[in-house]
Amino acid sequence: MKDLQLVLFVLGAIAIIAVLVHGFWSIRKQQPKSMKQSPMAGFYKDQAKRRDSEGFDADGIGQVRVRKPGEVEETVIKPVLKTNLSQKPHSGTTKLTDTPLQDSLRQPGPHKTEPEHVEPKVVQPAQQSLFVGDDVKPAPTASTSMNTPKKIFNPSTSTAKLESYTGKPVAARPEPIKPPIQPAAPKVDVKAEVEEVKAEVEVKSTLKADAPVNEPVEPTDVLVLHIFAKAGEQIQGAELLPSLLSLNFKFGDMDIFHRHIDNAGTGKVLFSLANMLKPGIFDPDNMEQFVTQGVVLFMTLPGYGDPLMNFTIMLNSAYQIAEDLGAELLDGQRQPWSDATKKDYLRRLNAA
What we know:
Blueprint: H1 2-30, H2 41-50, H3 69-86, H4 101-106, H5 125-131, H6 144-147, H7 159-166, H8 190-210, E1 221-228, E2 235-236, H9 237-246, E3 249-251, E4 257-260, E5 269-275, E6 291-292, E7 294-301, H10 307-325, E8 328-330, H11 339-351
Antiparallel strand pairs: 1-7, 1-8, 2-6, 3-4, 4-5, 5-7
Helix pairs in contact: 9-10
C-alpha cells in the first residue's frame, strides 16, 4: 500500500513538472523576437559601418533627416524668389516666330529657362466699383507684376468708358418711386347724420306708441287632463322624467314642467304639467325618489297661437305619457277619456 502511494506521488510530481515546462515554452514561443535575436540585426550593423562621413552608403542613399519648417522655407522659397527677380520683364504681347521646333532643338547653346506666362486676372465689376472712389492700389505680386502690363484706371472716367472697360453694362441707379397722391377724403357732415338718426328714432317711437299693446287677457276656461296610476301602483319619478324630456317638457316657473312653442324650451308656454298631489310641484334633483298617484296637464283659454293645435299637442303628449308609465288617461272630472268628452272639449275650444 505504501509502495502504491509512493508511485502515485512520483507520477503526480512528474505531471506537474511537465505542465510547468510546457507553459514556459508556449509563453516564450508567443513573445516577439528582439532585435538582437533577429537575423537582420547583423545586416543593419554592416550597413551602418559602410556609410561614409557624410552619411551616404554605397548606393548614395543617406539617412532620414527631419527638418524644421523654417529650414525648408530658406532652402526652397528663397531661390525661387531670386530667379523671378533676376528675370527680365516679359512683354504683354508675344511675338510669333517662323523658326520650327526642330531647328530650335538642333541649335546648341546654353539652356535658358523661359518664364511662364501668367494670364492677367480680370477684375470683376463688383470689385472695380470699390476702387472708383479709392486711390489705394493693391500691391503687385512678384509673378504678375513682371509678366503682365499695368492697366491704369482713371476714377474720373465716364460711365460709358467704365462699360467698355469691364465689358458689362453698369446697372442704372433706380430712381426713387414717389408715393401716389391719394385724393382727399370728402368731409362728412356729422351734424347732418346725427339729425337724421334722431329723426329715425322719433319716427320709430311714434309708431310704437300708436301700436296696440297686447295686454294679458284673463283666462276664461281651463282644459284639464289627468294621468292616473292603475290600482295598487304608483308613478315613479325615475320613469316620469325621461318621458317628459322626450316630449320637450322643460322644468320652469312654479316648480312644474312646461311645454313651450319651441322644442328647445323657449318662447310662449302652450300648456303645463303639475303633480296631482299637493303642493303640486316637482323636485328635479330628487326625481329618482319621487312617487305620486298621478299628474295633471292643463291649458288655459284663450292662449297663445291656435288653441286647437295646442290642445292636439297636449292630448298626444298625455297619450304618450300614459303609455310610457302604464297609467290611465282621465278627463277633468277624473273620468275615463271618451269620444263624448273629446267633443265637449272641442266645443269649449271653439267657444273660446
